Amino acid sequence: MFPDTLDNAKVLYFTPRGDYGIRTLTDGNEWFRVCYLAICKYGNSQEYYLFECNEDYRVESDYSCDSAEECMELGKSLCGCGIDWLNK
Predict the structure, then answer these.
(1) What integer pLDDT is reported at residue 81 of this predicted model?
(2) Looking at the DSSP assignment, which residues form a beta bridge with residue 51?
(3) Count of domains for the chain
(4) Which of 33, 79, 34 has the alpha carbon at shortest distance from 52?
(5) Is 13 helix (H, G, I), strand (E, B) or coil?
(6) According to the model, what pLDDT value does residue 34 have?
(7) Which residues 6+ apart lie within 8 Å of 9 measured at CB?
């Protein structure tokens, strides 16, 4: 079951486990494989965050956006694939 919170932020949307790409370090070595994406929000913050997570649901990278829809578009762009978002 997908966690309710990630990095102390409430999960609003998430993806099924999948292959959403590999992120690399500047030297070209693999940093992590993106297995999950999540759109989250911290407390009273106006910002939404797109989290890229590893196979253990650990947040490896994040992006700040103005809306959940913007996060969804960014996720699609970063991963180069269609994404099925699930409501939490």
Answers:
(1) 83
(2) 38, 62
(3) 1
(4) 34
(5) strand
(6) 93
(7) 40, 41, 42, 49, 51
List the pLDDT tens digit at each of the 88 positions of the chain: 999 999 999 999 999 999 999 888 788 887 889 999 999 999 989 999 999 999 999 999 999 999 999 999 999 999 888 899 999 9
Give me the residues paired with residue 38 across strands. 14, 51
CA distances from 48 to 22, 38, 44, 56, 68 (A): 23, 10, 11, 22, 6
Give me the domain span that covers residue 43: 5-87
Q: What pLDDT was estimated at residue 32? A: 85
| Alpha-carbon distances, residue 46 vs 3, 21, 38, 82 (angstroms) | 22, 28, 17, 26
25 is written with which tokens? 């370090």
